């Protein structure tokens, strides 16, 4: 089993269109209603109030419209609004992984927990013309994701599947004929609703905001934020299920928010028979996150794949 050294980055990926910040003139032109949320800070720099969920949603919608050829992007305010710069960074690093592995054909990607916004498939199609299968345990989220797909004319590139069993991740949504060059996933972070609310409260206090005013809009839905046993339980379930579908995906990948979880993942993957593991650090300003990628394919199987 080969384990690659950790790759570190101090900032966004070099291909990330937002690595130099936001051009609010361009964004307000793409989405005029964003203008109402833009103001100048004490340094005369245009910005928004990042503690205002309506402003954040308008900003990210404008980014989709201005840079990713998206014409329609809607989802309930009760769902989390994905930050586009961070989400597209995952896409770019995944592309690097596929290039390193010399995967030229079958650029089909599995998005686990695609959510109401369908953000990863929309970005992946826009940036790299990949095909996607997105899964989710929430039918309502899939309804909104499908609207985003249909209204952008991407139904031939993106298909959605409903995961009926909330305790399963891959089992039950994969067909025997499925072959993906990669899977991607942004796991739920918390063990319970209470833990999620406490984290949101702490975040809002750090922004000097009244928590009772903002907490409902920042809360997100249950399946987005918490899972019995938390991120650790979700990830280890994912690792185990990936070992049951070893040849259906070249690279299994996942965002991992907690650094302390990585060692346990590596130990588990070695026991499960992974042949290669890569850990990629993503640097987003002061925030560091990471993607762990693993494969069960032998060198010969990898060569046959590409």
Describe this structure in words.
With 306 residues, the protein is α/β, with parallel strands linked by helices. It has a single domain (2-21, 82-305), classed as Vaccinia Virus protein VP39 (Rossmann fold, 3-Layer(aba) Sandwich), CATH 3.40.50.150. The chain is 40% helix and 18% strand. The strands form 2 sheets. The protein has an 8-stranded mixed β-sheet with strand order 1-9-10-8-7-4-5-6, sandwiched between helices. Helix 5 links the parallel strand 5 (131-136) and strand 6 (158-162). The longest helix is centred in the N-terminal third of the chain and has 17 residues, at 84-100. Residues 5-10 and 213-224 have low confidence and may be disordered.
Outline of the structure:
By secondary structure, this protein is of the alpha/beta class. The chain has helices at 24-30, 53-67, 84-100, 119-128, 139-151, 193-206, 211-219, 222-225, 230-244, 261-272, 299-305; strands spanning 2-3, 39-40, 46-47, 108-112, 131-136, 158-162, 180-185, 249-256, 276-284, 287-295. It has one domain: Vaccinia Virus protein VP39 (Rossmann fold), CATH 3.40.50.150.
The CATH superfamily is known as: Vaccinia Virus protein VP39
Q: What characteristic shape results from the CA principal axes?
A: globular
Stated plainly, the CATH topology is called: Rossmann fold
**Helix count, per DSSP?**
11
Q: End-to-end distance, in Å?
A: 20 Å
Overall structural domain count: 1
Number of strands: 10
Question: Which terms would index this structure?
Answer:
306 residues, alpha/beta, Rossmann fold, 10 strands, 40% helix, globular
